[in-house]
C-alpha cells in the first residue's frame, strides 16, 4: 500500500497543510496525519488517499506505518455515507482473468466463496481482487494447521480438504465457481466487464432489515399504517404517508398510487422524496399470484415511435439488447414503469456516472478514472456511442425482457388489442430450477400448510 504514495512527492505536505483530502484534475493528493501506534504506543504516520474506483465511487485508502516498531496497517473506508439500500454482488469465475477483478470490501461486508463453503465475516475494509481474497482465506486457514491436526484431527482434516480445494481454485483447476459479496451498507463492489453476459456478473440491491439497520447504527423505519379504514388501496388515488428517509433518517413523505395498465394488471407506483438531503426514489411493484410460467417479451425497435412505447420492467426481469451489447441482470434497476427511451436513458446515465467522472463538464466528458485502461475506455466509449444512437432513434435494436414472474410489460401498437403486434413477440416458458430457487419458490408451500401448524 505504501508504494501507492511514492509518485505523489511533495503533494502530501501540501495536502496536510490544507487539512483536506481531495482529487483535482485527475491528480491524486495525499494527506499525512500523525497518529498513535496501537502496537508500541508511539507516534506513527497515517496516509490518506482519496481515489475513485471505476464503475463504483470514491473511497479513502488509509495506510499506517510506525518507524519505531515497524508495525503497518492498510484499509479502506467509503468516502460517502451509507447507501440507501444494501447490495449483493455475485461473480461466476470461468477463466484465470476473472481473478483480476477488482473488489472493494467495506468493513460491514461479508465475502463468500460459495462452492468452497467458506465465508469471510465483516471486518477490516479492503481494496483487493478475487485472487487476493482467496489467497488471504487460504493463508488464514493454513495458520496453526499443524497444531490443529495434532489437537483436533477431525477438524484439521476437514480444513485440510478446504485448503486443498481452495488451492485448486487458485490454480485454475476448479472452474467454474462463484464468489459473493454481501454488504448491508451498500459500500462494497465487484468490478464488472463490458463483455460479461447474463449470469456472469450480478448486482442486487435490497432493503435492510431492522437488525441490519441497528448493526449499522441507523434508526429503523417502522411499518406504514393502514392507508384507509378497510386496508384497501383505491385505484388512481394518491396516498401519502409519513416515512423516514433511508439516506439521512429525517422524516419525509412517500407517495403511492395504484395504476391499471391496460391489457395487463394493476401495479403500485411509489415515490419518496426528502427535503433535507434531496434523496429521491421511484419504484414500481406488481402484485397478484405467482404465475405457473415465466414470460419472455421481444420487441424490435425500428422507429422513434417505438421509443415512446410504455414499458414496465419488474425487479425480477432481465433486460437484453444484443445489438447494443447491453445486458441488465434482474434487480439491478429495480422496478421501472417508463418508456423504452426512458429506460435506455436511465441505463446509459447510471453506467456513464459509474464509469466516467460524474462531475465532468462538457469539455471533459471523456475524462476517465485513473485506473481505467485505454483499451477498456475505448470499448466503453464505443458502447455509449451505440447506446446514444439508439436513444436518438438513429439505430434499430431489439429489446428482450425475460421475467420468470411474468410481471413485465411492453405496450402494443396494434390497432386491435386482441391482434398481435408485428414488431413484438410474447411467449411463455418453464422456469428453470435456478430461477425457482432465486425467487424462493422451491421452499414455498401453498397447500396443506395448515397441517404443519
Structure description:
The chain has 453 residues and is of the alpha+beta class. It folds into four domains: 2-78, N-terminal domain of TfIIb (Single Sheet); 86-215, ZPR1, A/B domain (Jelly Rolls, Sandwich); 238-288, ZPR1, zinc finger domain (N-terminal domain of TfIIb, Single Sheet), CATH 2.20.25.420; 294-438, ZPR1, A/B domain (Jelly Rolls), CATH 2.60.120.1040. The chain is built from nine helices and 24 strands. Strand 2 (43-52) and strand 3 (58-65) form a beta hairpin. Helix 2 (130-142) packs antiparallel against helix 4, helix 3 packs antiparallel against helix 4 and helix 7 packs antiparallel against helix 8 (374-391). Residues 1-27, 220-227 and 358-367 have low confidence and may be disordered.
Give the topology.
Layout (H helix, E strand, L loop, with lengths): L10 H8 L11 E7 L6 E10 L5 E8 L6 E7 L7 E8 L8 E4 L4 E4 L4 E3 L5 E4 H13 L2 H7 L1 H18 L6 E7 L5 E2 L10 E6 L3 H6 L22 E7 L6 E10 L5 E8 L6 E7 L7 E8 L2 H4 L2 E4 L4 E4 L4 E3 L7 E4 H16 L18 H18 L5 E7 L5 E2 L13 E6 L3 H6 L15
Antiparallel strand pairs: 1-2, 2-3, 3-4, 5-10, 5-12, 6-9, 6-11, 7-8, 7-10, 13-14, 14-15, 15-16, 17-22, 17-24, 18-21, 18-23, 19-20, 19-22
Helix pairs in contact: 2-4, 3-4, 7-8
Function: Acts as a protein folding chaperone for elongation factor 1-alpha.
Subcellular location: Nucleus
Keywords: Metal-binding, Nucleus, Repeat, Zinc, Zinc-finger
Amino acid at each position: 500500500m505504501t508504494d501507492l504514495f511514492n509518485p505523489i512527492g511533495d503533494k502530501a505536505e501540501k495536502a496536510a497543510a490544507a487539512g483536506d483530502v481531495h482529487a483535482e484534475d485527475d491528480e491524486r493528493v495525499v494527506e499525512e496525519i500523525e497518529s498513535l501506534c496501537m502496537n508500541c504506543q508511539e507516534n506513527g504516520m497515517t496516509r490518506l488517499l482519496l481515489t475513485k474506483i471505476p464503475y463504483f465511487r470514491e473511497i479513502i485508502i488509509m495506510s499506517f506505518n510506525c518507524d519505531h516498531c515497524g508495525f503497518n496497517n492498510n484499509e479502506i473506508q467509503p468516502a460517502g455515507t451509507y447507501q440507501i439500500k444494501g447490495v449483493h454482488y455475485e461473480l461466476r469465475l470461468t477463466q484465470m482473468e476473472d481473478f483480476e477483478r477488482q473488489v472493494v470490501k467495506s468493513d460491514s461486508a461479508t465475502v463468500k466463496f460459495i462452492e468452497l463453503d467458506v465465508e469471510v465475516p465483516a471486518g477490516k475494509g479492503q481494496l483487493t481482487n478475487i485472487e487476493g481474497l482467496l489467497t488471504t482465506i487460504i493463508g488464514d486457514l493454513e495458520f496453526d494447521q499443524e497444531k490443529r491436526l495434532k489437537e483436533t484431527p477431525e477438524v484439521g482434516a476437514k480444513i485440510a480438504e478446504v485448503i486443498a480445494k481452495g488451492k485448486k481454485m487458485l490454480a485454475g483447476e476448479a472452474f467454474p465457481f462463484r464468489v459473493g459479496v454481501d454488504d448491508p451498507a451498500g459500500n462494497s463492489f465487484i468490478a464488472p466487464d463490458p463483455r460479461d453476459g447474463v449470469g456472469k456478473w450480478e448486482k442486487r440491491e435490497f432493503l435492510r432489515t431492522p437488525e441490519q439497520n441497528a448493526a449499522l447504527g441507523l434508526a429503523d423505519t417502522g411499518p406504514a399504517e393502514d392507508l384507509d379504514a378497510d386496508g384497501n388501496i383505491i385505484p388512481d388515488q394518491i396516498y401519502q404517508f409519513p416515512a423516514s428517509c433511508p439516506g439521512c433518517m429525517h422524516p419525509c413523505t412517500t407517495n403511492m398510487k395504484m395504476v391499471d395498465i391496460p391489457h395487463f394488471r394493476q401495479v403500485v407506483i411509489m415515490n419518496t422524496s426528502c427535503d433535507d438531503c434531496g434523496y429521491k426514489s421511484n419504484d414500481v411493484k406488481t402484485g397478484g399470484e405467482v404465475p405457473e410460467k415465466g414470460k419472455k417479451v421481444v420487441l424490435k425497435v425500428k422507429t422513434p415511435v417505438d421509443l415512446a412505447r410504455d414499458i414496465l420492467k419488474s425487479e425480477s426481469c432481465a433486460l437484453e439488447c444484443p445489438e447494443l451489447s447491453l445486458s441488465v441482470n434482474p434487480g439491478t434497476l429495480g422496478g421501472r414503469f417508463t418508456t423504452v427511451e426512458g429506460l435506455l436513458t436511465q441505463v446509459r446515465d447510471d453506467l456513464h456516472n459509474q464509469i466516467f467522472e460524474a462531475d465532468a463538464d462538457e469539455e471533459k466528458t471523456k475524462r476517465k478514472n485513473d485506473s481505467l485502461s485505454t483499451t477498456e475506455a475505448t470499448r466503453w466509449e464505443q458502447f455509449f456511442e451505440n447506446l446514444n444512437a439508439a436513444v436518438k432513434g438513429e439505430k434499430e435494436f431489439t429489446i428482450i425482457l425475460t421475467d420468470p414472474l411474468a410481471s413485465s410489460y411492453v405496450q402494443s401498437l396494434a390497432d386491435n388489442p386482441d391482434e398481435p403486434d408485428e414488431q413484438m413477440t410474447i411467449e411463455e416458458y418453464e422456469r428453470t430450477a435456478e430461477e425457482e430457487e432465486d425467487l424462493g419458490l422451491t421452499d414455498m408451500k401453498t397447500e396443506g400448510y395448515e397441517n404443519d401448524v
